[in-house]
Amino acid sequence: MTIDIQRAAQLDRESLFHPFTALNDLYRDGPNVMASGKGLHVTDIHGNTYLDGMAGLWCVNLGYGRQDIVDAIAEQSARLSFFHTFNSMSTDVAIECADALLKRAPVPMSRVFFGASGSDANETQIKLIWYYNNLLGRPQKKKIIARWNAYHGSAVMTAGLTGLPGMHALFDLPLGPILHVTAPHHYRKAAEGMTEREFSRSLAVELEELIAREGADTIAAFFAEPVMGAGGLIATPEGYWEEITPILKRHDILLVMDEVVSGFGRLGTYWGAQTYGLEPDLITAAKGVTGGYFPMSVCYISPKLWDVFEGNRDAAGLFGHGYTYSAHPVGAAAALATLRAIDEDRVVDHVAQVGPYLHERMRAVLGDDPMVGEIRGRGLMIGIELVKDRATKEAFPMAQRVGRQVLKAAADRGLITRALGDTLVFAPPLVIDRESIDALVTIFKAAIDAVRADVA
Ligand code: PMP
Q1: S-S: 402 plus which of 78, 98, 316, 396, CB 3.0-4.6 Å?
Q2: Nearest CA to ligand 1 atom 13
């Protein structure tokens, strides 16, 4: 590092426009400047080390500083640092990577399309869906349904799909034919006394009514994360997909699974689609495909769409979409090393063991805590929603920023979490061991205890 440690914070504030950051927070107590990472831990420029309970941003699935991935990146950079895939060009490594990804798909898939981020991949999905319906001669079938609290990206269309009003308000979004339905969050959205199954039924009724109102011939696709991540860490209630998928099938609405977080093992199966027994028409992946070592995203395209693309190739001519860094060879090399490591280290089986352990430990330590309203999630995704009153589910006043206080108390004790409002979430590297899970839970409890007196 060449910058002066004493000046780093000031220089950051003077030079870097941070994503998803309130300027007031940054100016008051930021930034936190990281400098290195190894395994489950990162170290800041002052030498403080943290257990990274969020795997960066749900992406560093195999931990930091893995030599096999570093070597793959270095070798590929030296051999061929860049070449593209436009105009029938390709690279050996991109071909190998596409093939390796297709072999790992949860349901038969025909092709993969590469990008560099989850957002650009979901933008691609929207375009593929529109392209498909245009080729089929039904240009009116274009609307896309997403759920409130969904996170599908922050580009113009995908920020609209994302069901977080804070990402719409000052950007004139959503733009285009986007519809939202209720988040499948039983704790917050179900009527008093409703069982999970009844709640799922009510969500199905809502979806049916929306489709009837809009006309099925205008609705193209339904986007969903298997477990909602950035919108509050929400796992679907019992019976949800049994209710929803037949409706989509009946109205010829494509199912797009956004597996940007859940793909490559996070839920204890290779794909979230497998956890829930789903057969998506399109799958979006990113993050874990390279364990965060290189920006890369993947759109999986099922035969249902691909056959239409291939069958109409004379009429379609050029496929007018793509990114400079689609199938970047260094990303492809990073992905190949990552996929190999996931297999060789039996990472998915490991998550199937330690995921339930994380939930068990969290429930044992915090299940009866008066500040904890709900502990939720699945696999190595867990959210702990803090409330003022457990009995009535009353939230803390927003201005109190309890989630942020706990986050800071955890960081002071060497643990990184993330606050989605007053829901604290963890999605640690998939290679986390039981001992580190114990440490995570213990530190988190201490952080809650530290702010308890202030917020009571
Ligand atoms: N989909 C999901 C489910 C995500 O969690 C994210 C990012 N957290 C995205 C899409 C967007 O990915 P990116 O930030 O790489 O654009």
Answers
A1: 396
A2: 118
Structural tokens at position 146: 């997403």
Please tell me the number of Cα atoms within 13 Å of 440 on its side-chain side: 32
At 443, which amino acid appears? I
ipTM: 0.99
* Bridge partners for 52 per DSSP: 416
Q: Is 354 in the pocket of ligand 1 (CB under 6 A)?
A: no
Question: What's the confidence (pLDDT) of residue 271?
Answer: 99
Which residue's C-alpha comes closest to atom 1 of ligand 1? 152
CA distances from 103 to 52, 111, 145, 232, 260 (A): 31, 11, 29, 32, 18
Burial class (CB in 10 A: 0-12, 13-18, 19+), 316: middle
How many angstroms does the Cα of residue 151 sit away from the middle of ligand 1?
7
CA 232 – ligand 1 centroid, Å: 14
Ligand 1 atom closest to the CA of 286, numbered from 1: 15
Longest distance between any two alpha carbons in the chain, whole Å:
70
Give burial (CB, 10 Å; 0-12/13-18/19+) of 203. Answer: buried
Distances in Å between the alpha carbon of 376 and those of 94, 360, 363, 384, 393?
A: 38, 11, 10, 7, 15
Q: Domains of the chain by range and CATH?
A: 32-62+346-455 (3.90.1150.10), 69-344 (3.40.640.10)
CB of residue 151 inside a 6 A radius of ligand 1: yes
Q: Which atom of ligand 1 is nearest to the CA of 120?
A: 16
Q: Whole-angstrom Cα distance, residue 227 to residue 251?
A: 24
DSSP 57-97: HHT-TT-B--HHHHHHHHHHHHH-S----STT---HHHHHH
**pTM for the full predicted model:** 0.98
- 227 CA → ligand 1 middle, Å: 13
Q: What is the pLDDT of residues 338-374, one digit of tens each?
A: 999 999 999 999 999 999 999 999 999 999 999 999 9
Q: Is 225 in the pocket of ligand 1 (CB under 6 A)?
A: yes
CA 181–ligand 1 middle distance (angstroms): 20
Contact yes or no for 372/187 (Cβ under 8 A): no
Ligand 1 binding pocket includes 342 (Cβ within 6 Å): no
Does the CB atom of residue 328 touch ligand 1 within 6 A? Answer: no
